[in-house]
């Protein structure tokens, strides 16, 4: 990890911009700690420059609760090399949604699967570069990436936003997830498939025969209308699975 810049944003929060094997990222940490803190990996759907204000708000909440937060630029986004096949599939999906037509499974596969296959190894490399932070949680971002990361042994809990299309393989992977889960669903999300989101929730942890803690919070409203109070629910979920394990471990 090569740190490019370090900025003290206030008395409590420090922002480190870095590259990791050429991938841009940001690390937010408390200015003073008594040692390693739990870590929250902040997933997101776009480039860091565009997403930074929202990510910073989420990071502030994490740091206020005693965690470190980190994120990476998504493959093909921002200043990273474009992925022409992914861009073409994204354009096809948007055309279908605007026209009110079904989105073909093949388009979802061409859009989402390459992002999962490219980004998850990068997130694992980030965990390698941040030793000592335990436990670790995943929060938000592209749903299929979150499901794959929930299978990573170093992840203790995952907060998923059912806001993106899913390849068929994601449902198979979801069945093997065993960590505690909180899934947020916008019931009237204009760009996504509610039935598929509910199928995902059914699948999550199903191979664990009911031993996986999973909770679904569904709210009326569109894709960007997640109620502010869900931030409090997410904070309580993370506290239950990060603070308690951190103290006991």
Describe the protein's architecture and organization.
With 249 residues, the protein is α/β, with parallel strands linked by helices. It has one domain (2-81, 115-248): Rossmann fold. Helices cover 41% and strands 23% of the residues. The chain contains seven helices and nine strands, in the order E-E-E-E-H-E-H-H-E-H-E-H-E-H-E-H. The protein has helices spanning 48-64, 84-98, 105-129, 143-150, 168-174, 194-203, 229-248; strands spanning 2-8, 13-20, 23-30, 39-43, 68-72, 136-140, 155-161, 181-186, 214-219. It has a nine-stranded mixed beta sheet, with helices on both faces. Helix 6 (194-203) links the parallel strand 8 (181-186) and strand 9 (214-219). Helix 2 packs across helix 3 (105-129) and helix 3 (105-129) crosses helix 4. The radius of gyration is 18 Å and the shape is globular. The mean pLDDT is 92.
List the helices and strands and how they pair.
Blueprint: E1 2-8, E2 13-20, E3 23-30, E4 39-43, H1 48-64, E5 68-72, H2 84-98, H3 105-129, E6 136-140, H4 143-150, E7 155-161, H5 168-174, E8 181-186, H6 194-203, E9 214-219, H7 229-248
Parallel strand pairs: 4-5, 4-6, 6-7, 7-8, 8-9
Antiparallel strand pairs: 1-2, 2-3, 3-5
Helix pairs in contact: 2-3, 3-4, 5-6
